[in-house]
Amino acid sequence: MNEKVMERRWAVVTGASRGIGFHLAAGLVGRGYGVVIVARDEQRLERAREELTGLGGEVVALRMDLSEQGAAQRLHAECQERGLEVEVLANNAGMFAYRDLADCTAERVGQMVRLNVATTTELCRLFVGDMRARGRGYILNMSSYASWLPMAGLGLYGASKSYLRELSYALRDDEVRESGVSVTVALPAGVATELYGLGERYRRLGVRLGVLGRPERVAERALRGLFAGRRRVGPGVMYRMIVPLLRHLPRYIKVAVRKKTLGFQK
């Protein structure tokens, strides 16, 4: 086994070819980690690998569709075969749909549940076991502020992110607290990435209005919280005020806003 590989601290980042995932990987490279970046788009993954290598990182790029059955086991096995002792697992890959459940295809529902829930859970199980045996490690789970917003169009997505939030709390508070493993859940609000299917125009507008965050800032804030040992990392004061307001909006306003915003997603 390569001694250089053994000496290097390694991190796994899923959904790392763009957006928050790419900036998480860049932040980890800046902190001295070798990174295993995982994504399903081969061309974007290769561009991310080149950029991260240019930052001085040691990078392993794995093209993998994590919404497929057994993907978590394949990723874990790949790391083991390469002799990589993973100290940080950043579960960032996720799928979004702004649609009523009845309007989603069975295929879309299955992909979202497997990716947002099943694969992430299995990755936690596999890598936490390794970390606990070594007595150290960090898990960052990327949930969402939508986990507190059970609204029409966000039912499936919000429920999957609520599950991930509660799983993170249970792992941290009840299962790994005494083992040297720290679990942090990040709960970003809107972020200017391609996840929501918004065009570039709407993403720029959202940033200017302050309702969408920049992915590099969201990633850095999440990493700071992770290494500070925080239980969760959420958005700013404005969003903490918005949730109670949204819960008490009259239904006719919610319906009108939803009709308008449904047209934003490609």
CATH architecture: 3-Layer(aba) Sandwich
CATH topology: Rossmann fold
For the record, give the distance between the C-alpha atoms at the N and C termini, rounded to a whole number: 47 Å
Number of strands: 7
Helix content: 40-55%
The chain-level structural class is alpha/beta
Radius of gyration: 18 Å
Q: CATH homologous superfamily name?
A: NAD(P)-binding Rossmann-like Domain
Kindly summarize this structure in a few lines.
The chain has about 270 residues and is α/β, with parallel strands linked by helices.
Question: What does this entry look like structurally?
Answer:
This protein has 266 residues and is of the alpha/beta class. It has a single domain, classed as Rossmann fold (3-Layer(aba) Sandwich), CATH 3.40.50.720. 51% of the residues lie in helices and 14% in strands. It contains ten helices and seven strands. The protein has a seven-stranded parallel sheet, with helices on both faces. Helix 2 packs across helix 8, helix 4 packs parallel to helix 5 and helix 5 runs parallel beside helix 6. The radius of gyration is 18 Å and the shape is globular. The mean pLDDT is 83.
